[in-house]
Amino acid sequence: MSQSQLPIASVKSGAENLEQMPVMQHLVVLRRYLFKIVGVILFLFFCLLPFRNYTYQLLSDPLRQQLPATSTMIATDVTATFMAPFKLNLFVALMLAMPFIIYQLWSFVRPALYEKERFLAVPLLFGSILLFYLGIAFAYFITLPSILHFFISVSPETVAPMTDINSYLSFCLKLFLVFGLTFEIPIITLILILIGAVSTQSLVEKRRFIVVGCFFIAMFVTPPDAISMIMLAVPMWMLFEVGLLLGKLLEKRKAT
């Protein structure tokens, strides 16, 4: 056997050995990775716990800037003043641990991949993490202030807007997750093209239906106002175009 055939043979033999592993052994390996993930999340959670109130102040800053001078946030439950920062602290720990979580999951599936698949998976993994963080940043710095300004500006003059801290937290976390997942559209589009589920030509032919679908989805996952729907649907459309452009470049590279 020549030296050029050795790496291919070793990769194939590794994949075959992985397929021959019993299911219980796969579960034992997966459990080890899950323990590491939970351990890192708990470590970050307890490290951030002393700053939980400061973290909630940062989250509530866009709302407090929009509220009138006579209004403030309220807590309608006795435990809300503790539970709301506690939940936010857990969410922040999870977000900070996301690169480590992705790396552990990648380490679990890496032995079953060939060298070419590993080469493509690494940039997709790092790209998905970066896009998820960009989605959350877009929601916090751009979308959230615009939505809050709209709702508070249209409130009647006889009504003093006072938001419950738990309700505001749930609203923000939902918004962050929606935009974080929305910004994964280029990665999803590339994966569908790579596995052959769709082609760039079929996506171009169905572009108008996809654009309508973006607005349709945004209508259901955002608050009931036109501003938030547009601020989600338009980025979804733009991100789809980015994924389509990268898919075309990938198809040209495969063709050559």
Automatic annotation (TrEMBL):
Instruction: Give GO terms: molecular function aspect only.
Output: proton motive force dependent protein transmembrane transporter activity
Q: Which Pfam families match?
A: TatC
Task: Report TM segments.
Answer: 33-51, 90-109, 121-148, 168-195, 207-223
Has UniProt tagged this entry with the keyword Nucleus?
no
Regarding the membrane, this protein is recorded as: Multi-pass membrane protein
Its Gene Ontology biological processes? Answer: intracellular protein transmembrane transport; protein transport by the Tat complex
Q: Which domain of life is it from?
A: Bacteria
Matching InterPro entries: TatC
Q: Where does the protein end up?
A: Cell membrane; Membrane
Identify the keywords attached in UniProt to this record, alphabetized: Cell membrane, Membrane, Protein transport, Translocation, Transmembrane, Transmembrane helix, Transport
Give the CC-aspect GO terms. TAT protein transport complex
Function in brief: Part of the twin-arginine translocation (Tat) system that transports large folded proteins containing a characteristic twin-arginine motif in their signal peptide across membranes. Together with TatB, TatC is part of a receptor directly interacting with Tat signal peptides.
Instruction: Relate the assembly described in the record.
Output: The Tat system comprises two distinct complexes: a TatABC complex, containing multiple copies of TatA, TatB and TatC subunits, and a separate TatA complex, containing only TatA subunits. Substrates initially bind to the TatABC complex, which probably triggers association of the separate TatA complex to form the active translocon.
| Family of this protein | Belongs to the TatC family.
Instruction: Supply the name of the protein.
Output: Sec-independent protein translocase protein TatC
Name the species this protein comes from: Acinetobacter kyonggiensis
Taxonomy, top ranks, is: Bacteria, Pseudomonadati, Pseudomonadota, Gammaproteobacteria, Moraxellales
